[in-house]
Amino acid sequence: MNKITLFIAMVFIMLTSCEPDEKVSAVYDPTPYSFVYPESFGDPGLPSDNLLTREGVKLGKMLFYEKSLSKNGKQACAGCHLQTTGFSDQNQFSLGVDGLPGKRQAMPIFNLAWRQSGFFWDGRAATLREQSLLPIQDPLEMHETLENVVKKLKKNPKFTDQFIRAFGNEEITSEKISLALEQFMMTIVSFDSKYDQFLAGKATLTESEERGRKLFFTEYNPFFPELSGADCAHCHSGPNFENGEFMNNGLDTDAAFTDLGREDVTKNIADRATFLIPSLRNIAQTAPYMHDGRFKTLEEVIDHYHSGVKMSSTVSPLIAPTIARGLFLDDQEKKDLVDFLKTLSDQKFLTNPAYAE
Fold first, then answer.
1. Domains, the chain, with CATH or none
2. Which of 49, 52, 287, 319 has its CA 20 to 30 A from that of 220?
């Protein structure tokens, strides 16, 4: 054997020795996910049939940012739920893959593990796993079939491997997709705003923020206007600044209703034009406001409750008494309220790399 032949033989041996004897498969060894939240929030009541694991949460995150879940492969869940805007959409109505606008403003995603009253503005999805699949199939959103989504994911090794890590085998089903998305979205939490730090004694509110805080939590008093507050806490209460109810907040009169809201789900006329009360956390980042995104600024929202509430057959009795005389707020008090609402922004949540692509 001459030197050239010997050299070629050695190169061949080196190259073939670098090739794996067999394909390395993903391993199913689930690790419990450490779900951290303040004691004041109470038990989130996580589903016992979908325990959080690091592998499942990672898969859910991959799916949340995966554009192949849409018909044309150009839109992911994250396209209408951006982290920088509290996982909401700054557009009044999100545009789907066919360029068509949705019918309602995209709701923000955080602290959903504590949601007990359903999902979407009208509560039509009872569980988060059910909610997660509907935008994929909606003609105004991602406009894809679950069958096609499964087919596309099966062709992608990074997903077949992660389904093994999350569920124990590479079989991909729409149910597993929904469970993984549920896991990821449940881990998106927000509880470290300036106001939270204030409650913990780690931050101080400005004079305007403190005045706004008092107005926010003080009840409406039509008999003693000088003692009356903005009475926000009846609807936006508890650690998440929401009450879990579906209410009509006086946006329109009966004749002007164009969206029947919860009534379309329950078929109960008492639910006409009622919508889920959203959390006020990160409210400064989640404009525009209301189910139809009609208000662009917090100042417009305050003006509505101050003197713009309209009477209708289903308007909430919590705000109906304010219609006749308004909230008695002057310009400085309106500014104070806005300043307080801005203390509910959670910068760690808005920039947390655990939620980013």
1. 39-189 (1.10.760.10), 194-348 (1.10.760.10)
2. 287
